[in-house]
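Q: What changes when heme C is included in the input?
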Amino acid sequence: MQITLYSALLAAGLVLLPAGASRAAEGVDLKHVDWSFDGPFGKFDRAQLKRGFQVYREVCAACHSIKFVSYRNLSDAGGPEFTEAAVKTIAAESNVTDGPDADGEMFERPAEPKDRVVKPFPNDNAARAANNGAMPPDLSLMTKARKDGPNYLYSVLTGYDEAPADVVMADGMSFNHYFPGQQIAMPQPMSDEQVTYEDGTPATLDQMARDVTAFLTWTAEPKLEDRHRLGFKVMIFLTIFAGLLYATYKRVWRDQH
Ligand code: HEC
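A: The predicted holo structure follows.
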């Protein structure tokens, strides 16, 4: 009982912890989006996660991996919830190396739902070589790895600009208001109409940045909805428990005054 109570209290504390202040490395205020998944009752918007995956696949996947995600996760509850048939089709559009076969040879085959999402480059050196020596980091945990991750990602994706006259840009770098140092080796990856959404949503830069950020928040925390549900149950439990404790206290001390 003791242990349950302590973990319940701990869980309640974690749920209620206020989100960290929105500041990028050198004190630039991040842009702030009202995410559907914010707050103790927040949930992902399935349609948004599907659009976000489309953006990842059609734009970001040229350079960035999401190595902790398998195709079948795309149909898991609490995620984009693609149908299993859709996941099979999505997976089969990429090839993976498998083997060795009976002759000891490696071979290529279409990816299956059980496979990890195929990486753009076979290794880090190839990734750097294709990006002027800069490494496009794996994005599966990126929203967790950065402070106020979702707002940070959204800000960087929408934060490209002409370099101010007094800023000297290094070769091949782009100016970005929100990336620490304000020089980023990633060329602006998206502008309006970069993709055509299957659900008809207008593909503005702002919309695509929101959608892909929501998707990458899910890849970093696929159990977010479960955690929020548990937090809510714990709160109810604690409320009832406090009531019971109070009733017991009254009863025990009733005749002692
Ligand atoms: C042409 C290749 C390319 C594409 C396409 C691309 N990126 Fe990048 N990205 C990079 C490189 C290279 C870096 C490393 C930048 C640096 O260290 O200066 C990077 C860095 C990042 C970072 C890390 C910022 C940080 O704080 O370290 C994020 C987040 C990111 N990209 C998100 C995306 C998203 C989302 C997309 C798709 C909309 C995308 N990228 C498309 C090459 C790319």
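Observations recorded in class: The radius of gyration is 23 Å.
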